[in-house]
Structures are given as structure tokens and as C-alpha cells.
Amino acid sequence: MNIELTNVTRSFGRNRAVDGVSLEVGPGVFGLLGPNGAGKTSLLRMIGTVLPPSSGEIRLLDRDPKNAAQRREIRRRLGYLPQNLGYYPAFTVVEFIEYFALLKDMPPARVPKAVATAVERVDLGARARARLRTLSGGMLRRVGIAQAIVNEPDLLLLDEPTAGLDPEQRVGFRALLRDLGQTATVVVSTHLVEDVGAACSEVALMDAGRIVFRGIPAELVARGEGHALGDAPMERGYSAVLQAARQGGVAA
Amino acid sequence: MTEPYDDDGERDLGGIDLSRVWTGVAAEVWRRHPGPVERIATRALRSPGLARALLTTPSLMLPWLISTAVVFAVGGLINFAGGQSLVWLLGPGIAAVGIAYAYGPGADPAWELSCSMPVSERMVLLVRAVSVFAVNAFLGLVVSAITYAGASPGARPVNAAAAAITVAWLLPMTAVCTLTLAVAVTARSAAAGASAGVLAWLAMVFAASSASGQFTAAVTDSSTYLPYLAVAACATVAVGYATRAQRGTYEY
Fold first, then answer.
1. In angstroms, rounded to a whole number, what is the distance separating the alpha carbons of residues B52 and A108?
2. Can you tell me the ipTM of this complex?
3. Percentage helix, strand, coil for chain B under 3-state DSSP, each rounded to 5
4. CB of A80 closer than 8 Å to CB of B112
5. DSSP letters along A74-138, please?
6. What pLDDT score was predicted for residue B160?
7. Among the partner residues A86, A119, A120, nearest to B113 by beta-carbon distance
């Protein structure tokens, strides 16, 4: 298993953002669904070794992130796209991706080709030398995805990756996700259920810091049968699970 | 001779993978050749990632450097005209602001992403702080030396012979900079660090000048040197502690 979480919690003051999450995830595309404030980003930041848990155990790629040497090894094999991608406006697309390739300890000789491959995979070849300040929100998101995949990570964490992408780009991105998920563990945090249905082999639904459903997308769809709220089958499943969880019973 | 097109109508180039060729070409075309400063930094730090992180220091960017040089030059001119050693008094304050804005969530747009990288954040902090300090010390010393050498003997500042082109004012600068850094990393706010450093320095200047009746006593009075050393030592310990167990990040 590339991700092993045991009873992980994370609190910010009195607010418990993640509340006793246990999870094991292997290779494939894993969707993390949930409403705003459900704890998805905090969970992803903990898996990304950016944020330590308040309690519980985390093992990533068979290593312990509490150990500095092992954490460094995890980070070499990690790709992370934060919800709010900070960037240097004066950098070009290539410079930005190259910068993070170097920070990921990639051998310098391998970097130019890895950067070119990542740029092509997100279809930004025509803007490779454009300054980041000149790009649209969707293009910046693709730059963020490119820096996350430049080291061909074994563990890829994407927080709201399709925000700002147009429908055509989202279709292309889902294909990229399926491709990446053949060899790596890809965790996609989103509140767009259609992304999960199209690209994910497994899905978890979070609410109030807890996982209230885990299964394959078809199971989530099945939960929504007969439920009125939602326009699409998976949306109905999403609403049904959330409603059940809020009425008292965690449905996972 | 083989048919130049295969069954799908694609051009058969004898097994050549055109996309791979294009990626290789793109890698060469887009390859960024590091400048001389980056090459020197890479050799000195033995890490291309750390060298690039150094060059992304906000307070080492060209507009910031120009502003710093202008402030020192104005200080030098006032020195020259009025015989008051303003450069010595400006140096610690200017460097403190630069140090505060060298690192951290409020100063570095890609800080969140950098936190998930194998290159140690503590090393990035150390390298950036030392570099900003060195640049400010260099500029201050150059302006001090020019001012002193260019003035007529009668117009040379009081005690200048001993202090202007020596490192006497580097001691208070070290104390103010480490104090700034300690506040900035503890409060996780560049503005808080800069404010604390500048206010502490202003308080010191006014207290020393009131006690001795000499405007530049904060840098020329040797009885202040020991307290400066004590402040620098305590602040260094505080920086080490704050970055070892910084809130919200892993220990290093």
C-alpha cells in the first residue's frame, strides 16, 4: 500500500479538521469527494508531508514521514498540487517546472527532458516560454499539474486539479489521470462528482473530518437510487450518503 | 522498400517515435542555461535546487537590490554633507527588513509547494538569510568606505577612523537581523519580523544617543557590543528552535 493512515486526526485550535481517518490506498486513481470544509485539503496536506497529524499514524510508500531521512525519500517520489498554487509571476512555464524538478532532487541532466515531457503532457507546449503572469487561471492550473508530475511520482496528490479548466481540458485531464494511475497512486480531491465518475477507480466521501463512504464509483451511484436530490446518478449518491451521515449513521 | 504510410494512415518512419523525438528537441530548445551566479551557488551549495531557491529570494530580486542600494547611497550622501554617520544607523534596519522578507509563508508565493520538497526548508532559510545579510553588509561597507575616503579630514565623521570601514556596525546589524529572523519565523509573518527588528533598532539608537549624547552611540559605543552579542546568540537559538518544531510543518 502506498498510503496507510491509521486513526489520523488534525486539529486547528478547537476545530477538528480531520477526525480519526483510517485509509489504505494502493496504485490507481482515488477520488476524495466532499463538501467545502469536509477536511479534504487538510487530509491531502498531511499525506503530502506538509502538515503533520495531531495524532495517529501515517505511512507513505512504506516509509515513516516522521523520520527526516525517510520523509526526504518520500518527497522525492511525491507530486503535490496544492489548492492554492503560489507561483513566481516573472518565471516562465519551463523555469517554474524546472525549479521544482530541481527542488525534488532530480539529477540535473534528466531535468530538461522531464520538463519537456511534463509540459507536453499538460498541452502547454505552445506557451512553454510564456511568463506565468501572462497565463489564464486554467493554464496556471496545468502548470501546477506539470510541476507535480515532472518527477514521475509514485504518489501524486492533486487538490482541486480541474478548477479553472474548460470542459475540453477536463476531458483531456481525466485521460491523463487514468494514464498516471496505471503505475502510481493518484489522490484527487475535488467537489466535482463528474471528475470522480470519469477518472477514479475508487472513491471516498468525507464530511465533517470523517470518511463517510468508501467504494467504487458504481457503489456511490447505487446509493443514490430513489434519492431525489441531484441531477446526475452520482450526484444523487453523493447527496444520499451525506444525508445519511448527517442523520447519524456513518455509511461507509 | 516499405510503404511510407501504415494502415492508420500515419507516416512510417522506420520505427522512429516522433513524439519522443519532439520531446528531445523541445528539451534542448527550452533548456535554461544557468547564469554565472547560479553556477557559483550550485558549486558552493552542492545542490542545484538550493541554488535556484536562493535566486528566488524575494529580497534578492533586482528591484529590491536597487532600492537597498539607493537607500544606502542617500545615507552616504547625508554622511558626506553633514558628517553624521547615517549609513551605520541605516544598515541594521535595512538588512533586518530584507531578512524578514527572505523566507516564509507571507514572503514566498510558492512556500506551500516548497514545504513538500526534499530540499530542507531550514537550509533554504539559512542560505537565504545569510545571502541577504552578506549583500547588505557589502553594500553598507562599500558606501561607508567611499564616504570616509571621499570626505576631507575635517569633515570625516566622529570616530569614523575606527568604525567606518571596519566591521564595528556589523555587530549590531547581526543582532538586529537575528532578532528579526527569530520573530519572523516564530510569528510566521514577515511583517511582524520586520516591524520587531526595525522598532528594536530605533529604540536602541534613541536609548544609546540619549545616554551618551552622541547620535551614533548605538554603533560606536563599545559598551553595547556585549549586549548585541547576547541578543544575536539568543535569537539564533530561537530561530533554531522555531524551525525545528515550526507550527504546521514537520520537524527538521
1. 12
2. 0.86
3. 70, 0, 30
4. no
5. HHHTEEEE-SS----TTSBHHHHHHHHHHHTT--GGGHHHHHHHHHHHTT-GGGTTSBGGGS-HH
6. 52
7. A86
Inter-chain residue contact A129 with B30, CB threshold 8 Å: yes
Q: Are A199 and A178 in contact (CB under 8 A)?
A: yes
Look at B109 and A86 and tell me if their CB atoms are within 8 Å.
Answer: yes
Cell of A191: 467537489
Residue B1 pLDDT: 43
Tell me: pLDDT of A33 over 90: yes
Whether the CB-CB separation of B37 and B54 falls below 8 Å is answered with no
The phi and psi torsions of B115 (rounded to 5 degrees) equal -65, -20
pLDDT for B56-90, tens place per residue? 888 888 999 999 999 888 888 877 776 667 777 88
Residue whose grid cell is 488534525? A10
pTM of the model: 0.83
Average pLDDT, chain A: 90
pLDDT at B252: 38
Among A49, A68, A88, whose Cβ lies nearest the Cβ of B109?
Answer: A88
Among chain B residues, the shortest Cα distance to A70 is held by B118
- Cα separation, B186 vs B225, in Å, equals 25
Binary contact (A75, B117; C-beta < 8 A): yes
Query: What span, in angstroms and rounded, lies between the C-alpha atoms of B76 and B149?
Result: 12
Mark yes or no for CB contact A94/B30 under 8 Å.
yes
Res A143 pLDDT > 80: yes
pLDDT of B134 reads 93
Q: Please report, in angstroms and rounded to a whole number, the separation of the first and last CA atoms in chain B.
A: 64
Q: Which residues of B202-227 are buried (b: 16+ CB within 10 A; e: fewer)?
A: eebbeebbeeeeebbbbbbbeebeee
DSSP state of A63: B
Residue A199: partners with Cβ closer than 8 Å, 6 or more residues away:
A29, A31, A174, A177, A178, A181, A188
Burial class (CB in 10 A: 0-12, 13-18, 19+), A89: exposed
First to last CA, chain A: 20
Among residues B130, B250, B118, B242, the alpha carbon closest in space to that of B185 is found at: B242
Q: What does the buried/exposed string (b/e) look like for B62-78 if buried means 16 or more CB atoms within 10 Å of the residue's CB?
A: eebbeebeebbbebbeb
- Between these two residues, A182 and B245, which has the higher pLDDT value? A182
Whole-number pLDDT of residue B109: 87
What sign for the dihedral angle of Cα A139, A145, A147, A151?
negative
Could you give the CA distance from residue A25 to residue B32 in angstroms, rounded to a whole number?
Answer: 38
- C-alpha count within 13 angstroms, C-beta hemisphere, residue B114: 26
Residue B57 CA to residue B63 CA, distance in Å, equals 12
